[in-house]
Amino acid sequence: MGPRQCQVCDQAQSKYKCPSCYLPYCSLVCFKKHKESPCVKPQPSEAKTTAVSESIVEKPLVVNETSHVLQKFQLEAIASSSEIRDALNDKSLQELICHIDCSSNADNELDKAMAEEAFRLFTDKVMLYVDSDVHSFPLHVKP
């Protein structure tokens, strides 16, 4: 989806969105003009929908094995990897991850996703960062 037209002046492409109602606007002048009249945050049913059609499933975070919790430095290594960030630019991978995360049976969806080569390659990259320093941190996280 490309740039949208400014909904205030209808003259330029929008670069910004109102933090309250998400109306696209192009400049500070248009933002101030928009704010002259009150705006409200859209209700969830009016909010822009994503490509993933599943509803968000509230699920508690339960970790039986503290060794399955990543350390901060591992998360930072993953987040700072340009290779992983580049892989996450793939829309189909984004949708697949969202599908897993939104599922009421995430374990089953994860198993299905592992059958797809692109997802397997992505998880292999992530695991390289997790396992690369496996001996430099404790196996169990202390509370």
TrEMBL record:
<keyword id="KW-0862">Zinc</keyword>
<keyword id="KW-0863">Zinc-finger</keyword>
<dbReference type="GO" id="GO:0008270">
    <property type="term" value="F:zinc ion binding"/>
</dbReference>
<dbReference type="GO" id="GO:0005634">
    <property type="term" value="C:nucleus"/>
</dbReference>
<dbReference type="InterPro" id="IPR007529">
    <property type="entry name" value="Znf_HIT"/>
</dbReference>
<feature type="domain" description="HIT-type">
    <location>
        <begin position="6"/>
        <end position="39"/>
    </location>
</feature>
<dbReference type="Pfam" id="PF04438">
    <property type="entry name" value="zf-HIT"/>
</dbReference>
<dbReference type="InterPro" id="IPR051639">
    <property type="entry name" value="BCD1"/>
</dbReference>
<dbReference type="GO" id="GO:0000492">
    <property type="term" value="P:box C/D snoRNP assembly"/>
</dbReference>
<dbReference type="GO" id="GO:0070761">
    <property type="term" value="C:pre-snoRNP complex"/>
</dbReference>
<keyword id="KW-0479">Metal-binding</keyword>
<dbReference type="GO" id="GO:0000463">
    <property type="term" value="P:maturation of LSU-rRNA from tricistronic rRNA transcript (SSU-rRNA, 5.8S rRNA, LSU-rRNA)"/>
</dbReference>
<dbReference type="GO" id="GO:0048254">
    <property type="term" value="P:snoRNA localization"/>
</dbReference>
<protein>
    <submittedName>
        <fullName>Zinc finger HIT domain-containing protein 3</fullName>
    </submittedName>
</protein>
